[in-house]
Design goal:
The chain is α/β, with parallel strands linked by helices. It has helices at residues 7-20, 25-43, 58-72, 90-101, 133-144, 183-186, 190-194, 206-212, 252-264, 279-285, 297-310, 324-336, 345-353, 358-366, 377-384, 388-393, 395-402, 440-453, 458-480, 490-498, and strands at 2-5, 49-54, 76-81, 105-107, 117-121, 148-152, 174-178, 181-182, 196-200, 216-218, 241-245, 269-275, 290-294, 313-316, 341-343, 371-373, 407-411, 417-419, 425-427.
Length: 499
């Protein structure tokens, strides 16, 4: 697991390192410059021309120090100081004075000639305002130029906390960021502006990071160790029983995909609770699943208590449809269930229709088995009343404000956010756009349910489920390609990832 930090958190880490621990700011600046220099020298020969565009803050100081190092390596370096900021920082002045003594070339206007490399050292992590005036003109002009674009720490114009673009933003091929990854570099549209992101250690002490304790984390391959170990002396009952309430007439596929994913996630037994019309289809597609079918909502309600008592995890929603029958099933699950519950798809849409119903809200709030909800943006919009655009601009905040300890939200987007209402929130970094196909969400619900059945906590099952779902997609596109991937192929690659 690794931290991702916001603008404020990175500034606090920087300040603590300098003011409390005593590391000189110029030392950190030099190491930042060396980190970017290493990436340039690894990619480009010394006969390359470099234009470094700066403002008078510490990000600009990083750029000036970088240029000095590149000059020493034999690169042809030109500096352009925009000069739209009235006062320069002390560190910036030190770096500029060194360059003036060395006879460095400072252009009075943004040069019109083309360069092999353009370096953005204008604003960096500290930007809080809209980019306008001369800064917007310069950034827009740089974006039109041919050549390789490198951003120092954060592309100018990208909010390091949210990934939103403040008027305009430098579009980089490469962003070299310092110390820790930034939330705004992984959320969109900031991720698109950043290009390839490399996080470089420049000497922020571990103690400084721990004192600040960033509010967002993400997973790495090592976190697969959270998966419970299989036991040699075990049986199908050892690995849990998932009750899947899913599938309506003409919607059998969602139930099948969800059940298959639960099995591929290590679950011992899956029981599909669905309409009678789906019986033959399910028995042919997934014969290992137990079937409980109903011909009417009254029959379903009579069968549900026994099915819930059989299971140690339930999932509801995939392909269920939004109907009076679905509402009654959902209410009954919340009334009688006391096991971990995954709520997805049409169950979420049904919840959204009932969000002003006091009796339903009481059932929702008092459900004591623990609940994971997996809305995509439109479903979250229906639940909260927020617009999709507002949710996208505030993914982490929205998930955190909606969740609580017993109701974990998996807010699905290109970067899925998981929150239990407390810190840290989780942003998922695995997965790809090839997974943007029907049925992918049903697979995720099955994975999470399977992990819960295997003994993971609500939070770990939600986080690890999202992570493994994305890893399976990353493996799948290697074989299927982005255009050729379908949801039914994900479970086989999930097995490979978990193995």
């Amino acid at each position: 697991m690794k931290y991702l930090c916001t603008r404020e958190e990175m500034q606090q880490i920087d300040a603590y390192s300098i003011e409390k621990i005593g590391i000189p700011g110029l030392v950190l600046m030099e190491k930042a410059a060396m980190a970017v220099r290493d990436e340039i020298t690894n990619r480009f020969s010394s006969d390359s021309s470099v234009l470094i565009v700066v403002e008078k803050g510490n990000n600009g100081g990083d750029g000036l120090a970088l240029g000095r190092l590149l000059m020493a390596d034999g690169y042809t370096v030109t500096f352009y100081e925009i000069g739209g900021v009235r006062h320069a920082t002390d560190s910036y002045e030190v770096q500029k004075n060194i360059l003036l003594c060395l006879g460095a070339e400072f252009a009075e206007e943004l040069p019109e000639k083309n360069y092999h490399i353009y370096v953005d050292a204008i604003f960096g992590v500290g930007l809080k305002r809209e980019v306008g005036g001369v800064h917007k003109e310069v950034i827009d002009t740089l974006n039109e130029r041919e050549g390789y674009k490198i951003a120092v720490d954060v592309p100018s114009g990208v909010d390091a906390s949210t990934g939103q673009v403040a008027g305009t933003a430098f579009v980089a091929n490469l962003t070299v960021t310092f110390g820790l990854g930034k939330v705004g570099l992984v959320l969109y549209p900031g991720a698109d502006m950043a290009g390839e992101v490399i996080v470089k250690d420049i000497g922020f002490p571990k103690r400084a990071v721990e004192m600040v304790c960033p509010s967002v984390v993400t997973f790495e391959k090592d976190d697969l160790r959270l998966l419970p170990l299989r036991k040699a002396r075990s049986n199908k009952g050892t690995y849990g029983r998932v009750l899947l309430i899913a599938g309506s007439v003409n919607m059998a596929g969602a139930a099948y995909l969800c059940a298959l994913a639960a099995y591929k996630s290590g679950c011992g037994l899956v029981r599909i609770f669905t309409c009678e019309e789906n019986r033959v289809i399910m028995q042919q597609l997934i014969p290992e699943a137990i079937m409980t079918t109903y011909s009417s909502v009254e029959e379903a309600l009579s069968l549900l208590p026994e099915a819930l008592s059989w299971a140690n995890v339930a999932a509801i929603g995939p392909g269920l449809s939004v109907s009076e029958s679905s509402e009654k099933l959902l209410r009954e699950v919340l009334r009688q269930g006391d096991i971990p519950l995954v709520v997805d798809a049409d169950a979420i849409n049904t919840m959204a229709m009932l969000k002003k119903d006091r009796s339903f809200l009481r059932l929702y709030r008092e459900y004591d088995g623990g609940m994971i909800l997996t809305p995509h943006l439109m479903e979250m919009s229906r639940l909260t009343g927020m617009s999709v655009g507002d949710i996208q601009e505030r993914l982490v905040e929205t998930a955190k404000n909606t969740a609580d300890r017993s109701h974990i939200y998996v807010l699905k987007d290109a970067r899925t956010v998981v929150s239990d209402g407390a810190e840290p929130s989780y942003i998922n970094m695995s997965g790809n756009h090839g997974m943007a196909v029907g049925g992918s969400g049903d697979i995720l619900t099955g994975i999470i349910a399977g992990f819960l059945a295997g003994g993971l906590s609500l939070r770990d099952a939600a986080r690890l489920g999202v992570y493994c779902h994305g890893l399976a997609g990353d493996e799948a596109v290697k074989e299927c390609g982005y255009y050729g991937l379908s949801a039914k192929e994900l479970p086989q690659f999930l097995s490979k990832v978990i193995h």
